[in-house]
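A quick aside before the break. I want you to see a complete sequence-to-structure record at least once, exactly as it would be stored in a machine-readable document. Don't worry about memorizing anything.
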Amino acid sequence: MTASDTSILLFDSSDEYRPEPVPEPQAPVWRDGSVRIGIHTSIAGGFAGSLESASKLGCNALQIFSASPRMWPRVGARIAEIDAAEFRARRAELGLGPLVIHANYLINLATSDPVMRVRSIQAYHDEIVRGLALGADYLVVHPGSYAGKTLAQGIGDVGTALRQAARGVRLCAEFGDLRDCRLRLLLENTSGMGMAIGSRFEELKAIMDAAPELPLGICLDTAHAFHAGYEIHTEAGLAQTIAALDRTVGLARVAVLHVNDSKTPFASRVDRHEHIGRGHFGKGHFGKGKSGLEAFRRILNHPSLSASAPGGRAGRAFLLETPIDAPGDDRRNVRRLWDLVDIPVKQAPRAQNGFSMMPRTRRASSAPQRNEKRTNASRKSARASKG
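That is the input. The structure line, written in tokens, reads:
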């Protein structure tokens, strides 16, 4: 190599590679301040089928289970990546969000039984892993029952169990960072039945304090609050309930509301859900003779709870867990919520006429008719054989 050639090899700082700056993370579309209304949909037809059901019911948000809720899944049960990828892609196409997963009902993070405790922590860890695979935004769990110990011990054990279950997984770093799309964990308030933890907001706050490093928030169930003695169904009671929420867990931590009416009276401590406007929200001694629809109208449009109001939380979702006693009950309850937030049919997500998660069956009268036909055929056969 000659001296004249070496000049081209000299280092020039301007030639140094400079990677493109990492773009600032953007908040997901469903946190645009629009009203988000959904319902719990079935995964019986597959995870992707739950998305189709939500869309056909006129929802723009949804809740699902990640496995059977009333039996223990196999330890380490996972979702095949091909199914998870299909689910994530279809959800993006349909524009559904947030996606909320409700944890297995058998999980008891406060239990005194050592075998049940290990099983509950493992099952909750598996719920987190499946939620991450599906791209879920929230995972809701009931804290559990503290039978055999004090309430304070139970609360401490729930906090420890949450921390143990979250080991080795990457969750949202800061609950309040709306640009962070990773999974957040939500504690659901309870009805106060038996030794269940979480009927008082102070108990939920104590659990959050016991695991401060986790992105913990609250799922507020309207029926459970009603059962536990919060007068959420009256105008004054709603204001008091919201003030209690803000004083304890903080309204910014209330990310999801389960919107349910109640089959049982006020302060019953018995958890039974009813169709919107047909339960005790309008029949109790605090509003006898008045429609419960007005109670839900106040809740859905309250400036501190609405997703669209300046004082609300962007992306906060209202999700139904109401019964389906007849085909179309699910679609009608979803439409009722859109009506209560004053969004007309033409502006709300379009529902498919006649669709329901409960398929229509033949009329009951058809069974006697079939029996009658069988009886007549038997008679004819008997006469023929005698002839």
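Two observations worth writing down. The longest helix spans residues 114-134. Residues 237 and 324 are 29 Å apart (CA to CA). We'll return to this after the break.
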